[in-house]
Amino acid sequence: MPQDTGELEAASTKSERSRADAEAAAGMGTACTRADERIQTALGLATGATTRFEARQDVAMGGLLAGLPALQARVPPAS
Fold it and tell me: E strand or H helix at 24, and its extent?
């Protein structure tokens, strides 16, 4: 499993992510990155892949995602 070095990577663009997904498709399938973690989980050697949050640019619907907490706070709970 990769170690967190504490160094920040440059934010990737949508084009860069699309290119990386296309390259990954040649191996295990569309957008199948981190194959080592997926294989370990499939073989029962791990319980799941680690969630990673990475810097991104031009995220589709990013403005909507940023506003969800405010919208959720205004909606009364269902009874």
Answer: helix 14-25
Q: Which of 37-46, 49-58, 59-68 has the highest mean pLDDT?
A: 37-46
Buried b / exposed e over 22-48, threshold 16 CB at 10 Å, is eebeeeeeeeeeeeebbebeeeeeeee
Res. 2: pLDDT tops 60 = no
56 backbone dihedrals φ, ψ, rounded to 5°? -140, 150
C-alpha to C-alpha distance for 49 and 34, rounded to whole angstroms: 8
CA–CA separation, 26 and 30 (whole Å): 8
- From CA 53, how far away is CA 2, in angstroms rounded? 14
Alpha-carbon distance of 67 to 61, in angstroms, equals: 10
In 32-76, which ranges are continuous DSSP H helix?
35-42, 62-74
